[in-house]
Amino acid sequence: MPGTVSGQKLSVKLILIFCFLLFITQANADSFSGVNLSATRIIYPLNGKGVSVSVTNNQDYPVLVKSEVMNESQEEAPFYVTPPLFRLDSRQRNAMSIIRTGGNYPSDRESINWFCVRGIPPEADSVWADNPEKSAEPRKGNVSVGFQVVVSSCIKMFVRPEGIKGNSADMADKILWKIVGGNVIASNPTPFYINIAGATFNGAEINIGKGYIPPFSEEKAKLSSGFVSGKGTLKWKIIGDYGERKEQTTLIN
Questions:
Q1: pTM of the full predicted structure?
Q2: Interatomic CA distance for residues 142 and 122, integer angstroms
Q3: Is 168 in contact with 240 (CB distance < 8 Å)?
């Protein structure tokens, strides 16, 4: 039927357009992800006066750097970042300070927040991106990147009470594992957030919660429907305070 053929052609065209837009968006998102932080996580002492972290612009053009601290509900957390907004030139690095301004945090366990940084590329009319350097060459006007994609880079920021000592990576042997009703259950009896980078059970990949186990809590991972045994080998990696990864092997009986 002519209508059916026309509809099929339209569907194919829409799919191709969608794939093209997805490719363009991803390509530009990747190109704007060149604003990098000097750490993969931040440990903030509960009663500390502040911590510092650096950001580097790996792009060939200046960006506006905007940063903030968010809680797990994606709301503003009681921390101030200075400078909160600044221009960062190409291939340059700048330090930022994070200072707590309030909030009630427990003294017997870690709390989690997120430190987020956005590298905002210039638009054609961005005055802040105008090249200030004097040159014998004719002035070319403002730097412009054309297609605009703003990418946020967020890392975990753990608020750690003074009474909690050591590195979270050293807590691996304290995590308890068991199988209940087709799920692997991970119990964390420590005051640390236990961060996990990949896990497999009997060779099959599993996802444990959000990738971390909160203090004094449990998280679970669903096993494949074909799993019938009540035991197996769990391989996983724990991430430490400095981003280091330690591979672990646990036999679950």
A1: 0.78
A2: 8
A3: yes
Phi-psi region at 172: left, alpha or beta (left = phi > 0; alpha = psi -120 to 50): alpha
Q: Is the bond preceding 106 in cis, omega lying within 30 degrees of 0?
A: no
In single-letter form, the type of residue at position 115 comes to: F
Q: Which residue has the tokens 């060149």?
A: 34
Give the residues across from 176 on adjacent strands: 187
Residue 46 included in any domain: yes
> Per DSSP, what are the bridge partners of residue 2?
none
What CATH number is given to the structural domain containing 208?
A: 2.60.40.10
For 121-135, the pLDDT digits (tens) are 887 666 666 655 533
Strand partners, 36: 56
Identify whether 4 is part of a domain. Answer: no
Radius of gyration of the chain (CA): 24
98: nearest Cα among 39, 158, 52, 36: 52
Which strand ranges, in their side-by-side order, compose the sheet holding 63-70?
Answer: 41-45, 151-160, 111-120, 63-70, 85-88
Spatial contact of 34 and 28, defined as CB atoms under 8 Å apart: no
First to last CA, the chain: 62
